[in-house]
Amino acid sequence: MRKRGSVNKKGGAPVSALRLPSFFAKISHWGWHLLLFFFFLASPLIFVSGYAPDGRLFCTLYDLPKVNFIAAYILLICFFYALYLAFTPERRQKFRFFLRHNSGVRVSALLFLLMAFSLFRAPVREAALYGLLNYLLMGLFFIVLAQLFVRQEWRWAAIYGLVAGLSVFSFLGILQFFGYKIPFLMPIKGPASTLGYRNPAAHFIAMVLPFALFATWRHWRWWRVKGQVLQRNLFVGFCLVVLGGLALLFMNYSRAAIMALAVESLVLPLLWLRPQRGATEGARRHWGRAFMVGTLVLLMIASLAMVFPQSRKRVVRSWTRFQKSPAQLLEARYYHWGNTLMMIKKNPVLGVGLGNWRFSYPLYYKSFAKDPTFHYRMQVRKSHNDYLQLAAECGIPALLLFLLLWGRQFYLLRYFTAGSDGEEDWRLPLLASLLAFSVIMFFSFPMQMAYSRMFCFFLLALGEARAWPVLSS
Predict the structure, then answer these.
(1) Mean local confidence (pLDDT), 226-251
(2) Contact of 256 with 199, CB cutoff 8 Å
(3) Can you tell me the distance from the alpha carbon of 404 to that of 390, in angstroms, rounded to the nearest whole number?
């Protein structure tokens, strides 16, 4: 009987060293697919009904369940990744190399450090500590995903999860739009689906649509090459998901989401602007196709905005206000932003404390101009501009570090890695989603919401993972 750790006659390695890692590798291969797919599928769909057993509405919590689910699941992912590192020494070496040499990790660590320093200025330190723990958890998520997404198949597991979540989300939202009362969803104005309010719902669609289009493009190419019925059916299915998401976005008539969609449409023509070597006529033909596609997409967006009554009214009303005064277009944001700038002026280095903008705003609500939306019956909780809110809460240096980390992702797009990514150019959906998220951060507060905050670090991880094979060589 062979003793534990004895030498195998064929390879000369301990039998236990051969069996356990190979078994774990086989399990983890499909385990990561399922783990990532389910996470990105379930994250936007988690909710609480808010109804008592007798049918009365007793609460309208729609962000807290997502906070709890995302936090618990990220800890689960980190635990399994620690096991993955424990059984694969080669992966441990790559992980240590990534931590030592990746600039994105250093910048994010400095950003979290400044967030921690802001606790000393916070009037409500419990809120600041809660926000810091959330961001530290996102930092772990960013590092783990950046390592996992080096493998393209695990990226696709996440993307298919996103598309599956979008399909369920859009179906529920469209039912709400046509007046069907879904008993387990809260009756909040607008077809909010499982995100509780129409604006976050529209933002979610704008952020995810580029990846849904990317998956659609993938299966269309496979259908053309292989001619399989399965690929044709998948292509048609993904097209329906994209159309359903687009329809729900305009049903929600969020101006920030519509603007983000218009910015994303500028990226779509890049499909016809791949690096082409050859005659000048070929380059001109590609530029012509790109111009035609860009024009058609913009016309389609304008047409959809006019088809849905609420979107049409919103666009017309915004244009009328802009003609009178640009400040009227901003509505209450004009007062929020102006007073927040005064808050930044008084606290430029460490801010007022992470998560403490809402507690400090009563001291500044009339420092620039008296905010008519702030009174004893209504409290303003967010500045509707994540850039300004970060500077106000954590200081101008923290904002500069965030812009450096965010801008780094646009810089990394200069690296063409399709050769190592199976000839699939991940820069296109990544650029579109980064632009959409940038627009939404300017007019809304995605970093204050659990799902979109997670999605921000997902984009950061995907950008780092895509470029890391080039950066580490």
Answers:
(1) 90
(2) yes
(3) 14
Q: Name the maximum alpha-carbon separation found in the chain.
A: 90
DSSP string, 331-374: TTHHHHHHHHHHHHHHSTTTTT-TT-HHHHGGGTTTTSS--TT-
How big is the CA angle at 97 (ends 96 and 100), to the nearest 5 degrees? 85
Please tell me the distance from the alpha carbon of residue 154 to that of residue 35, in angstroms, as a whole number: 10
- Give me 425's structure tokens: 């150019």
In angstroms, the CA 261 to CA 445 distance is 17
Band of the pLDDT at 282, cuts 50, 70, 90?
A: low
Asked whether the beta carbons of 436 and 263 are under 8 A apart, the reply is: yes
The tokens for 173 are: 């939202």
Q: What pLDDT, on a 0 to 100 scale, did the predictor assign at position 418?
A: 67
- 3-class SS at 125? helix
Number of Cβ atoms within 10 Å of the Cβ of 234: 18
The answer to whether residues 265 and 294 touch, using CB atoms and an 8 Å cutoff, is: yes
72, two tokens: 């618990």
Give 286's contacts (C-beta < 8 A, 6+ positions apart): 272, 273, 274, 276
d(CA 312, CA 304): 9
- What pLDDT does 310 receive? 75
pLDDT, tens digit, 9 for 90 and up, residues 88-98: 888 889 999 99
- pLDDT score of 254: 87
pLDDT, mean of residues 388-401: 96
